Amino acid sequence: MIRISEKQRIVIKLGTSTIAHGTGKLNIRRMTTLVRVLADLQNSGKEIIIVSSGAVGLGVGKLGLKKKPTDTPSKQAAAAVGQCELMYMYDNLFDDYGITVAQILLTKTIIEKNNVVNTFEKLISMGVIPIVNENDTVAIDELELEIGENDSLSAIVATLSKSDLLIILSDIDGLFDSDPHTNENARLIPVVNEIDGYIEKIAGGAGSALGTGGMSTKINAAKIATSAGIDMVIMNGNSPEKLYDLFEDKQVGTLFTSQQQ
Are 54 and 21 in contact (CB under 8 A)? Predict the structure, then answer.
């Protein structure tokens, strides 16, 4: 039996829908609660790493744009503005609890060279929470091709940092047997022990208007994480306090079990 309460090093991926309102402006109430919960988990002895989406979305809000831009230069400009907003927010909120955060912007070149591994270890040993994002201002894979989206990035970060658990906070309660937005009888799948053709088939659909991910990208993240021996949970980020339930071994969201149990 997998006991989430025993997990020590945790990567938490925050989607744009968790961080921001549909307007692109920061969801202050939710983020205030989420940071408080994460700070409390850190204080309890957990080692927290955050992979944060939201730079482009917050940039859209900061620049007063009516919608997410479609051309790459505008997306990169929004990311550059939004990344400042994002880190300013994290720095201020975590500072209220005496916790220092650090920014780590990754590109494929950095990941492939594994240069970032020692940085993670040193920051964690110092009690710092790394805030990770892809460097959208110079890396266009995520912006144009969507092969470097943050769901998969979070699984790569979990692997590099030798984490015990990956949690993806989304705008949905977990993996359902059909789309809960269109089928009120859709049922939550609490545990996935194997990502087979059936799981692949039901993992369709796009993410929020400001984000890039959908359930299919989360399944891809699950493949990366579980093949590396890391359990993964998809859960709703609308109620951050449910993280307490998760770490008390209550059933929350969908658990993808590692292939190396």
Answer: no
- Show the tokens assigned to 185: 């009888």
Pairing relationship of beta strands 254-256 and 231-236 according to DSSP bridges: antiparallel
* Coil, helix or strand at residue 105: strand
| Cα–Cα distance list, 118 to 113, 125, 207, 214 (Å) | 12, 11, 33, 31
How many CA atoms does the CB half-sphere of 72 hold within 13 Å? 11
Spatial separation of the C-alpha atoms in residues 1 and 130, rounded to whole Å: 30
Residues 6+ apart with CB under 8 A from 200: 219
Distance of CA 235 to the CA centre of its chain: 11
pLDDT digits (tens, 9 = 90+) for 224-253: 999 999 999 999 999 999 999 999 999 999
Helices (H), 114-214: 117-125, 150-160, 197-202
Tens digits of residue pLDDT in 141-161: 543 433 357 899 999 999 999
Residue 214: left if φ>0, alpha if ψ -120 to 50, beta else—which one? beta
Please provide the DSSP assignment of 92-104 as one string.
Answer: HHHHTTT--EEEE
